[in-house]
Task: structure prediction
Amino acid sequence: MRWIGSDEAGKGDYFGGLAVAAVFLDDEKLPELEKLPIKESKKVTDAQAIYLSEEIKNLCVHEICYLAPTEYNKLYSRTPNLNHILAWLHSRVVMKLLNSVGSCDRIVIDQFADPDFIKTYFPKEVPLVIHPHGEEELAVMLASLLARATFLEQLNKLSESEGVVLPKGASTEVELVGKEFVLTKGEHALGRVAKLHFKTTEKLLTTAPHRLWAPWRVEYITGPRKGGCIFCEALKNMGKSYVLYCSEWAFVVMNIFPYNNGHLMVAPTRHIGELRELTTEELVEVGRLVQASVEILRKVMHPHGFNIGINVGKVAGAGVVDHIHVHIVPRWLGDTNFMPVIGDTKVVSAALDKIYGMLKPEFDKLKL
Result:
């Protein structure tokens, strides 16, 4: 008898990614496997799961696929249905394993959705069995242990890299750690460690207190106002003014008194205060830089949306009335609403130098 079993781990955990494993089993391996204290993965400790997974890897041909949170969130944004993602991952590891071993008599998958739906992801000739209690099958039990161990190992690595212990599950403890993570790392960093489509995300972002720390505003609040145009001054001293990109017609600069993390401004290099004064070249270049800036912010900071706009005239809220500029404000679920953004009531959570260091390499790659 030759058969394959597959199972997944991490789909119910807010932190960490998603692991799917498949294991090939035949009669020759059974005597060796019987020597191991193999149980359903739910009945063993984390340490036992990791130990058993190493033994299983040494004995059985297997395939494992792990989606880190960043990869998972990108995939979910394109395919917002967990069952579709699971079916794709199961078919991926099973078919890859099947190609390695040549053939098998039976392929068993622990049921996670309607069997007919799961089967659409596999060739019709595959001897597929969707089992509602899959871990009763030895091959699925082995795959479950591999998937769980992979998830745990990757969660531990993620905890180490972020400097915080990320708990399993979706409990109150998870919410407490999540709130602290948002407070210390910033909302944009959540996608590195968590599955953003969980309801936990909205709960964290709507209940987590905003961090009242903005050291760069002290000089603005307490210091004397400088004369001249801040945009023209920035162009004269680009090395110290957070200019991210400059062309002949326009440039991108960080707002040093930002309304939110990653707040950028795009302005013409020429000192003009009205839209009607923009030449065709300037108008096109400003538009291209706004478009490029949005894509770079999307890539680096993973915001959920943007506010993009121009304030023309002091009555409309323009802080600098004689040098027209476009605001690009990244937005995350639960940060605030548009009026507080414009009214400058939000204090952000990440230092300018750090964000500049994240964005500048991407702007350096621009070829417009």
The first strand starts at residue 2 and ends at 9. The chain is about 40% helix and 15% strand.
